[in-house]
Amino acid sequence: PYFEWFQFNKEFTEYTNLEECISHLCEYITSKGPFDGLLGFSQGATLSALLIGYQAQGKVLKDHPPIKFLISISGSKFRTPEICEVAYKEPIKAKSVHFIGEKDWLKLPSEDLAAAFQDPIIIRHPQGHTVPRLGTHL
């Protein structure tokens, strides 16, 4: 089963509850942190990358030390221009590792997310939209 942080339309350009979700995550990170990095799967990776991009542009987490790294598993970029123009305005300088599945329906969006980072590390696996088991694949 999959769970979601927010809802979205088919084109992934309109979002419901996204601002509330961002506020909740920022409050959690600020009150429970500091955190050096973020790890997320699917929407969790997409949101984690967004927070790091927003933080780099001074939009969120202003009182939290810079988040240093992201581990993204099947993440993607938001597609609406209002978000892209801020979060991905410049290459994101935080270190990043991106797990991308060859059979993942988000393969191309995951590659787009990796391209938003400066010097991303990409680990490809033969599986789909899942947290990969890498033992025999590395």
Automatic annotation (TrEMBL):
<feature type="domain" description="Serine hydrolase">
    <location>
        <begin position="1"/>
        <end position="134"/>
    </location>
</feature>
<dbReference type="InterPro" id="IPR005645">
    <property type="entry name" value="FSH-like_dom"/>
</dbReference>
<protein>
    <recommendedName>
        <fullName>Serine hydrolase domain-containing protein</fullName>
    </recommendedName>
</protein>
<dbReference type="Pfam" id="PF03959">
    <property type="entry name" value="FSH1"/>
</dbReference>
<dbReference type="InterPro" id="IPR029058">
    <property type="entry name" value="AB_hydrolase_fold"/>
</dbReference>
